[in-house]
Every structure is written in C-alpha cells, then in structure tokens.
Amino acid sequence: MSIAVFTIKTIPDIDAGRRLYNLHDLSDKEIANVMFYKRRQETENSEFLRLHLHRVCSLSMSVRNDHGFQLLNLDGESETALLQQFYDTIDQHKPSLISWAGSRFDLPVLHYRSLNHGLRAPLHWSESEEAIAPDLQAMLTGFTEQADVPMSELATLQGLPGHMHIGADQVWDRYRRGGAEQIRHATDTEVLNTHLIYLRFQLFLGRLDEAQYQAECQMIRDSLSQQQQPHLHEYLSAWSA
To answer: From the DSSP assignment, how many helices (H) and strands (E) are in the chain?
Structure first.
C-alpha cells in the first residue's frame, strides 16, 4: 500500500481571461487585474478566482511506499507536461492520494485543466478505493466549513515550520517577477506539512502506534537530510527547532 500527498500552486489563467472577456489588447497583468476586479464584484470582497480560471504553475507530491519516502517536485516544461507527470506518477505508484482541501480546490482545478488539455488518466478515475483522494482538512473538520483552520497554523501548533517562502496570495506577484523556484519551494513545504499532519492523524486514529509514528517521521528527516536542496535543509532545521 502506498500513499501520495499532493498540492498545487496556481496563477490566473490569462488565456482564459483573454478569451472569456474579449481582452485581446491588454497585457497579462492588466488581464489579471480585470479578472480579479470581476471576482470582487461577484463576491464583494474576494479576489479568489473561480476554479476554472486557475492555471497550475507548481505541483509537488510526497510518496510513501515499500521503498521508503520520496519528495517529488514535478517540473514539466509546460502545464500539460506537469499534469501528465502527476498522472504518470499515479500510474507508477498506484497510491492512495491525500490532500489538504483537495476536494474543494486542488482536484477540481486539476480536472478542469486536464479537460482543457485533452489528457487521459484512466487509473485516476477508476472506481477503486486507491484512486479516491481523502481530503485531510474535510475529515478533521467533520466536513463543516465553519471549522476550517489555516493549514499553516495547524502545522505550526504541531511543531512544524508552517508557511515558508511565500503565501498563497503572493504566488501571482512572485510568478510575474520570475520567482518560479520560490513557488516550487513553497509547494514542497506545503506537501511536507500535509504529509506530517496526516501521520499525526494516523496516530490519532490508532493506525500507527507511537513507535511507528516516530519511525515515519525519522524516515522523512533522513530523506530530507540526504537532499542537496537548501530549502529542504531549511525546512528540516525549522522542524527540528
């Protein structure tokens, strides 16, 4: 049995805004501003775009199987390649997918984008239990939105680093300024936090005992310490503090 925790970072789909709102003579920044303005009109206070207007710019996964733990930051040359890597990883490892708020955000965005790109992912859509992606946030809240808490704050209360590098509301600005690498680092951090909260949840459910839980955490520490990426060592140092 393998599991894969995943998360995405997104930016406005400028091409969608250009086509839907007939904004062909505007710059990307101007089109995004129009999209945000229209969303504020719809919601009165939020610029968070409707899910079909997001484009995936970063996708990270952690995989835990019989071979151990591995953090994967999928890095396709295009969004199409990025999403195909995600589905290829599912085909390879056949994991049970775990997410934080994935049922309300990550999965719908992935599905809309995959439809737009004409991708095929039959295993992802199989009816097996392994293909269903438990939403860790939804389970912890008892599927009640009023009980939602920021994942970064919950992680911090459990001794984890919480948000590092950039927040979700900074992704578009950082992307425009050439900060794709920082976005990928933030995506990795979110996956690691979600994976570790998931382990704590398994301890809570009695599916792991204390020794097993500590062994899983140590496996992740050992894996991160062997990486040559500074942001993972930064995460490890913050976690150990």
So the answer is: 10, 4
Do residues 196 and 155 lie in contact, with contact meaning Cβ atoms separated by under 8 Å?
Answer: yes
Quote the pLDDT of residue 143: 81
> Could you tell me if 53 and 36 are in contact, meaning their C-beta atoms sit under 8 angstroms apart?
no
- Gyration radius from the chain CA atoms: 18
**Length of the chain in residues, anyone?**
241
Place of tokens 């050992």: 222
- φ, ψ at 58 (rounded to 5°): -155, 140
At which residue do the structure tokens 């934080």 appear? 100
- pLDDT by residue (tens digit) across 79-114? 999 999 999 999 998 898 999 999 899 999 999 999
d(CA 80, CA 68) in angstroms, rounded, equals 28
Cα–Cα distance measured from residue 233 to residue 224, given in angstroms and rounded to the nearest whole number: 7
Q: In Å, what is the CA distance from 196 to each residue of 36, 55, 179, 229?
A: 34, 27, 26, 19
Output b/e per residue, 168-205; b: 16+ Cβ within 10 A.
eeebbebbeeebeebbbbbbbbbbbbbbbbbbbbebee
Tens digits of per-residue pLDDT, 121-140? Answer: 887 766 444 445 678 998 88
| Whether the model pTM is above 0.90 | yes
Cβ-Cβ contacts under 8 Å for 45 (sequence gap 6 or more): none
Which residues neighbour 40 within 8 Å (Cβ) at sequence distance 6 or greater?
46, 47
| Domains in the chain with CATH codes | 3-240 (3.30.420.10)
